[in-house]
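Dear Dr. L.,

I hope this message finds you well. Following up on our conversation about the binding site, I have prepared a predicted three-dimensional model of the protein together with iron/sulfur cluster. For your records, I am including the exact sequence and ligand specification that went into the calculation, followed by the structure tokens. Please feel free to forward this to your student if that is useful.
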Amino acid sequence: MQYRPFGKTGKKLSALGVGTMRFKLGEENGFENAVQLTLEAVKQGVNYIDTSFGYLGGQAEKIAGEAVKRAGKEVYVTVKSNGLTDVSADACYKRICDSLKNMGLPKAHFFILWTVLNYDDFMKMTLPGAAYDGAVRAKKEGLIDHICMSAHASPENIIKIMRTGKIEGLTISYSVLTPHIFEPVLQTAAELGIGLVTMNSLGGGLIPQNPGLFSFVKQDGDESAAAAALSWSYAHPQITTVLSGMTTLDELNENLRAFSKSENSAESEKRIAEVNKSFSDITGFCTGCGYCAGCPAGIDIAVLMQAFNAIKFTGGIMDYRRKDERLLENIRICYRLNMISSFMPPDTKNPCLQCGECESKCTQHLPIIKRIAEIYKRFDESAYSEKHIMDRLRNIFSVNYEKIAFWSAGLYTKKVFSYFQKLFPNQKSDFFIFDKNEKLWGTVCDGIRVENPSKLLEIKPNIVVISNYIYSEEIYRDIKQYENSGVRIVKIHTGNDVPWLF
Ligand code: SF4
Ligand code: SF4
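The resulting structure of the complex is given below.
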């Protein structure tokens, strides 16, 4: 195993890190198998486990904790808090304490402010009394060693956040699919001494599922496109650790072999250069080189074109329980957009002026104008814009309801509710959230209490809005009987929609 210093933290992390959200807990002995898999990784030299309260319903933390306790040597582990849901310092501090309790550990080495979407959100999270202060308190008390962040924000936003000096480490999505776009992030991290962990090195599963398309990643001696993609990430000296969510011993061993041979800097540079060159040889692919920058309409062309690449892939990302092929393509485009920069357009009117400047500069000679028109058409048909969310809510709430309920608790409802508040800032209704997860009953989400669904008829809301994408149909089937008692039940999503949050 190879190790590199993690920024200025004084810690050296292994090249491979264990991601804990893909364990197969449904199988017989699933929990113990996951612990054993993690322990085997540790035995082979892995010393970094990335986990979160949000993975596998809290089981991932328990697995990580168990592995750390049984490891018999120092293994670094994470705790996470999302500053959008754990808004206050107290909520963030409590989250850290709850996670440590769940893992059965006295401390975690790395706290990660989880899934920061942009610079403005980060600044809100670091206001006095907000989430960041909770992490500072935990650090003072020795519950954590370092404050880090994971981001799904644009490279510009990530760089601005790094320059605030508030984070010691950073986890970003980085793969052969987005090399050039995130290069400035890598350079800035190195310049500022901020440690870098990368996730989604296999493009969210796209690389192993499209081995033919990605065969160009393989160099002499590489076992597979997936193994080569991991080696390619680690070939960047700014990256300390490459995360991989493994489910079997075979996958672990393949990953370990990818990191077993140490490359010197000339070999690494050659690997990066050859992969980048082959990537640019693929007809019709945007490489993210950024030569098209400077659009007079303010369009971030490289980001849109990189997302459009996803149309050429199959499988990979989760299917969100949808089957229609065109819808799945739309989901893939929007998913990639979110991975790259959390972009959602204000509306679906195509902003392109068709001046043609970008096409004359494009190194790949892409039909950018046509592709942008296609992307905006797809945004429209799949309701992917802020205007669509607002219009949906305007229609649903054309009547003034006394009691309004959302189903279910979490970030999705939070996002929908934030648009509701923008639309109806003076609404005096009583709000409720219902959720089947009993652990959430009595907790507060965005100032609204989460209730046991058995209290639905007692509370008797006028309307229940199903603000959930994946399980929308199932939830509706479960609760439609309440319509007979006069409760209006509305699904916020219709059949062609893509998720509004990934
Ligand atoms: S053609 Fe459209 S996308 Fe390209 S530079 Fe002009 S306005 Fe921007
Ligand atoms: S110039 Fe072409 S290949 Fe390069 S980022 Fe722009 S659209 Fe992509």
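In brief: The mean pLDDT is 90.

With kind regards,
A. P.
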